[in-house]
Specification:
elongated, Dna Ligase, domain 1, eight-stranded mixed β-sheet, 4 domains, pyruvate (chains A, B), 31 strands, eight-stranded parallel β-barrel, 848 residues, Pyruvate, phosphate dikinase (chains A, B), homodimer, Glucose Oxidase, domain 1, alpha/beta
Chain lengths: 848, 848
């Protein structure tokens, strides 16, 4: 024998007993579960399991002696063969029942089951064997109206015609055929790709389960029972029972199916077989308790006796998942920590937003990027002002724009959902949409946007006009015609309880990005630990303020500029006072003005004309100023601290507004404001701004006689700021990483322009993930690590955090915990997800 | 005495003798030079020097005993006091002559010099003492038409009126006043700022020199002699002599001044005092030889005897500087290495371009950024095509644009100079201008550009119309009216010799960025070691190609795209063949297409209309495509390798053109082409492009049966590529750092938009330098170091270099040498500068 040939192994064919060596990793989850049921002394029919290795050998042509398997069972029984993979989500071939059926068996069964029933069983076996094992044309073996004996004869004839051999009568030959067919199906390319898409490894194994079938006289049948609702997770006995059925046939909708519990809608198992029902309930409860999970129980009743054939996790909606986990913990079955770990954080997103009802018809007009989750229905409007008008009339509307800009914010607030032609996951519309919790589909270039003519052309040519009703599904990226049924979001007690438990173990803070009082209210509702990023630019785009802001931009002298800013001061102060009141003692981090000034100026002729009139200046001057301020690469232009240094009066005003609002807090625990300088690249920038902010604080203290505290820090958004963190940190109480911009600059890639090729890039595997979606640990992450390490060395007490889109994702939270950051900050609507993810990460090393 | 009070020091007043302790660092350069002259046994009048410390104490009010100084001289002599700073460029107070002059001395001198001359001497001393020491109103002490004795009486009276004390008659009092006045002048704020601007440290010291004056009867006078021309550096005795004059009066333009050598223009010292002339020539030659420098000698002749009062470095033009250094080396006075080190690399820039003649009148219309050095005169044109038309007619023209784009390149080639309204040192116009060696002024917002009306409005309101003649001075940033006199560039034998010597010691290669055959010719002329960056996009904007390129962009299918590219292939191949021929065996690094496609499309309606006609497509389709391709931040968009992956046919075509051109080389040493992938961020990008390029190479080899070699590498322009260099390097033969883009991304700052605030930022000290001008060692530099280290660890033989604007600057070369890079690449016109700078850096540790 050559050295590199594998040793021929003994096939691993194991009878399921309490002590047999069966494991999920070698025999699959179903096999292990059956062994657990056996250990619980539940009435499980005799079962034999084949290990992954054995099944793989079968697929490769090494069939073990099927007779040996049969020898584990009483002669003459019928067998059922089912798959058992490591994870039930990975799929697998369908079950094969009634293996062992033959003319001889049919005749024998006719005595107990009756002629017709016995013939029908044989017929069904021939049909499924022909199609699934012999791979014959399913059309030849369809169910017919013919009597069972006529149909059986036809099926046997068809089999023999096609296979040029009679239908196998030897149970061992049948069993071998079934095992080989299931083993090979698992190795098929499609099956492999499907399970790999669900996260299965390339070499995922399949176990097979051979179980004796229960077939009896009289009160025989099968069914499925579970003790909790798949929809809500509430306690509720659900399932069906069907006499003279096998497997899951009871769920097939036959007319003589029984409810389980007594039910006004029809007859029930409880009434028909009260003792069996009671036993079944006890078995189910025992399984729930001892398997520590809500189980869906597959059972048969044979002559009044209950057999448990299989148990699987109750399938569940995300909402039910939360409640099931909480109820198991409340019933003392699992510890709270485990309940916290049982819910996938991202699954919470669905609970926070309306959804298109699972069964509703979807008339798809076109698709785009699913940029902000949730669904909403409304009439189409094409301008922000039309959206505001609709909202004023109390009408739901969908704001449709080529792309959005800060001028559209009021309209986005007013709209039920937003749809744009351009942009990707990180476009303005997407970021703001997620922040507001407004469903949003962006980059919907399948549709043609004729915004001037106020219409959309669907991909099939249908025309959607201003005022027509459509539905945006921000969770799938679909634009739907009309108003499919939606289901409401739920923040029920189970949700709150689970997150409360999560908070008990969580060891990193979760703040919210919140720009407005509405955002702050949402942040409170989701119990954020504070505001991690308040973007002040949104405060300048409300109608009355925008005009003053523009006056400021057009000011010819420092005095004129200061006059305009003086008008903005009280408005800003009120903004901050509102935020402080809502956040009541929790920290609030305010970013000084960041965007380039041209974002505040109108881009089209009509609005420029209006502005010229408002400012009482010639139109030519307005257009010239707009042109002057236009930038080649606004992302890399005159913004952030550069603006603060060029026009220091702006930051002076903002600092004054913050301090005056701080003083104006009445009662309760006061907020200590945090002032954040954006787009820093060098120490000296921080030094200059800090000097002025400190001077403003001194001035306010002197003038008012009031004392107050504040913190000053920077947003680290440029690679250079990260590299120079050691210089910068000594001037800062905190450094917060703006990973959106940092990702843009590290990749040299604008999030607004990336949409054009990002999906192709990810599909081709050029990037493993969209770095605007999942933090790029290797590149951007290294800059974060460098900055954290250097910043801490220079200023050991510095507070570190990330804000920006990545803040809420579990991967980023994991990164931040490992790096020892103090908090993450994310959209208010992602706060619950982040709280849960953080808790799971804290628990991970304890559980494993 | 308190401990922290400084020890009172003995004043350091030293007689200049061969062995006296005099050093440049303590007494200044002039003092040290005089000691050297004494050591050479030259006839230097008795001289005493005061150290920096002593002069500082004088400024602080601690005057040493002036009598002690006087005691070093014979009684009754007149003294001259001159400054002696560490570096002559740092300035200093003017010399004071005739200290010790008084009524009594006047009377004594009248006997030897005559009444009038003696009176005149006294008068001049009173005048300069009153103005420079007593700080009286200069108007009161102007030269008058009056007879000397009348003027003297008036001056003495004016002094006494103002000072309320008679003019001091005691030489010690006079000397003390002069020393105090000069010491304090050095500490004045203006003087301090002026010298700091020239690089002097804050505590730069001043020494003072007190020298006995030569005053005699008969053939007495003074003058200045040098043995080389300040203009050309050629051997030529220059200078003047004036009888009965002092100091440098001979250079003042008096009518009875003498030439030194026999001269057809007038009488000479050689004729008047042949022996003294001969002695003077010998002294000058001795000084040149022993002081190892061309010296300007200040001398007096007293009764036929020559005295050497002072020697300073011959002032020199940059051109003369080169020749002087070369001649000193050729004469064996200094080693070649020292000659190489004596020329400031940046000074060469002036030699490579025409300049406005130093004395020419400058009628300034407005100023902008001096973006590409040199001066040019021509008629104003406002479009690239007008520039080409003018060039076709053989007329020099200045291309005036708001800003330039790749479409303007042909026009820029055709123009003598370029002027733009927008942009900074790194704008398109500036970069291309420097590359082409075309003088360029950008960001000239002092002027109003009315390009549609085809006129410029000067800052004083004058109108410059299409066709008017102006001059652009790209070295100063000035736009001048008319045609001031220009002087020609010189690449003379001295220049070539010096750079040849530089190459002998240089240990880092210098390549040129060259896109066209013209650029390559320039690179050869300046003896570049190869082409480090050939940007292929410039090859697509020539009229005939642009149309095909646009067809490619509008192609609906891969086949259509490939058809268009097939038309471009032979043109590209010819481009490369030309480059290879010109570079004859030197390496040529070709960057694959980099800019976003929209740069190739017209932006205005008229051109779009024309394009629609040319492509036979509706205008709406053209505008839609232009709109679709428009980007928010083109710098961070769909460009570089992203384009190469999205539309792989483009790089396929370019690779094919490169390989076919490689094969087509006939005779001579063949060029091994280097193919560079732009804007890389991840390993997989390189892998994908490399696979296709290798496949194209295999295809060309199979089809032609010819073999050839090539190298593939990447341009590292994104921070991420630098951080991930370890992953990327194994796929690359070389990595070249594109420091322009890397700086933009590291700072989050677009070079096109930075102009708006960069000068203010540098002035405020926010950034010590414009990082687009001087490589930012702390931020960008660290990324380079990280990448080099990781790249080398993964691929020890990898070739490292920088290309881009920083490539030619001495600071970057220093950085690259330290980091062990293989070459730098820069504009062809900077190659000589880089060669010299690199040589100096190689010599630095040896010389010190």
């Amino acid at each position: 024998m050559r050295k590199d040939e594998p040793m021929p192994q003994q096939p691993d064919i194991t009878l399921v007993t309490p002590t047999a060596p069966i494991a999920v990793a070698t025999h699959g989850g179903r096999a292990k579960c059956l062994q657990r049921l056996v250990r619980l002394d539940l009435p499980v029919p005799r079962t034999v399991v084949l290990s992954f290795d054995t099944v793989l050998e079968i697929a490769n042509g090494q069939m073990p002696d099927a007779g040996m398997i049969l020898s584990q069972f009483e002669p003459g029984v019928l067998l059922c063969v089912r798959p058992s993979s490591e994870d039930p989500d990975w799929g697998g071939p369908g079950a094969m029942m009634n293996v062992g059926m033959s003319a001889e068996r049919r005749d024998a069964l006719a005595a107990t089951l009756g002629e017709e029933e016995a013939t029908r069983l044989y017929l069904r076996f021939v049909q499924s064997y022909a199609v699934h094992v012999a791979r014959l044309d399913p059309d030849e073996f369809e169910e017919t109206e013919a009597a069972p004996d006529v149909a059986l004869a036809a099926a046997l004839r068809a089999y023999e015609d096609e296979m040029e051999t009679p239908f196998p009568q030897d149970p061992a030959e049948q069993l071998a055929g079934v095992l080989r067919s299931m083993a090979r199906a698992w190795q098929g390319t499609t099956a492999r790709l499907l399970r790999q898409a669900k996260g299965a490894p390339a070499d995922a194994g399949l176990g097979l389960i051979v179980q004796q079938m229960a077939l009896g006289q009289g009160d025989c049948g099968s069914g499925v029972m579970q003790l909790a609702s798949s929809e809500t997770g509430l306690e509720q006995i659900t399932g069906r029972y069907l006499g003279r059925s096998q497997g899951r046939e009871a769920l097939g909708g036959a007319s003589d199916v029984l409810y389980l519990e007594r039910d006004p809608r029809g007859p029930s198992l409880e009434e028909a077989l009260p003792e069996a029902f009671e036993v079944l309930k006890q078995h189910s409860a025992l399984m729930r308790h001892r398997l520590r999970e809500e189980m869906q129980v597959e059972f048969t009743i044979q002559n009044g006796e209950v057999f448990i054939l299989d148990g699987v996790r109750v399938p569940r909606s995300n909402r039910a998942g939360v409640r099931i986990a909480v109820r198991l913990a409340e019933d003392g079955i699992i510890p709270r920590e485990e309940a916290v770990c049982r819910v996938e954080p991202r699954a919470l997103a669905e609970l926070l937003h309306r959804q298109v009802a699972p069964g509703a018809e979807r008339d798809v007009l076109g698709r785009g990027v699913a940029a902000s989750p949730g669904a909403a229905t409304g009439m189409v409007v094409f301008t922000a002002s039309a959206a505001q008008a609709a909202a004023a009339r109390g009408e739901a509307c969908i704001l449709v724009r080529r792309e959005t800009s800060p001028e559209d914010i009021r309209g986005m607030h007013a709209a039920s959902a937003v749809l744009t032609e351009r942009g990707g996951m990180s476009s303005h519309a997407a970021v703001i949409g997620r922040g507001l919790g407004v469903p949003c589909v962006v980059g919907a270039s399948e549709l043609r946007f004729q915004t001037r003519r106020k219409q959309l052309i669907a991909r099939d040519g249908r025309v959607v006009r201003d005022g027509d009703t459509i539905t945006i599904d921000g969770s799938t990226g679909e634009v739907l015609a009309g108003a499919p049924r939606l289901i409401e979001p739920v923040l029920d007690d189970a949700f709150r309880k689970l997150l409360g438990w999560a908070d008990e173990v969580r060891d990193i803070k979760v703040r919210a990005n919140a720009d407005t009082p509405e955002d702050a209210e949402t942040a409170r509702m989701f119990e954020a630990d504070g505001i991690g990023l308040c973007r002040t630019e949104h405060m300048f785009v409300e109608a009355d303020r925008l005009t003053v802001m523009r006056e400021m931009i057009f000011a010819d002298t420092t005095e004129e500029r200061r006059d305009a800013l003086d008008l903005l001061l009280p408005m800003q102060r009120d903004d901050f006072r509102d935020l402080f009141r809502i956040m009541a003692g929790k920290p609030v981090c305010i970013r000084l003005l960041d965007p380039p000034l041209h974002e505040f100026l109108p881009t089209n002729r009509v609005d420029q004309q209006a502005l010229a009139e408002a400012l009482d200046r010639p139109l030519s001057e307005v257009t010239r100023r707009v042109e002057e301020l236009t930038e080649y690469n606004p992302m890399l232009g005159m913004r952030g601290v550069r603006l603060g240094i060029a026009l220091p009066e702006i930051y002076d005003m903002q600092a004054r507004a913050i301090f005056e609002a701080t003083i104006a807090q009445d009662g309760g625990e006061p907020v200590v404001p945090e002032i954040m300088i954006p787009l820093v690249t060098a120490k000296r920038e921080v030094e200059l701004v800090k000097t002025r902010v400190d001077a403003v604080a001194a001035e306010v203290r002197t003038r008012t006689g009031a004392d107050f505290d504040y913190k000053l820090g920077v947003m680290v958004e440029t690679p250079r700021a990260a590299l120079r963190a050691g210089d910068i940190a000594p001037y800062c109480a905190f450094m917060s990483f703006g990973t959106n911009d940092l990702t843009q600059m590290t990749y040299g890639l604008s999030r607004d322009d990336a949409g054009r090729f990002m999906s192709a890039y990810v599909q081709q595997g050029v990037f493993p993930e969209d770095p605007f979606h999942t933090l790029d640990r290797d590149g951007v992450g290294e800059l974060l690590t460098i900055a954290a390490e250097r910043g801490r060395r220079a200023a050991p007490d510095i507070v570190l955090s990330i804000c920006g889109e990545h803040g809420g994702s579990p991967e980023s939270i994991e990164f931040c915990r490992e790096a020892g950051f103090d908090y993450v900050s994310c959209s208010p609507f992602r706060v619950p997800i982040a709280r849960l993810a953080a808790a799971q990460l804290a628990l991970k090393p304890k559980i494993v």
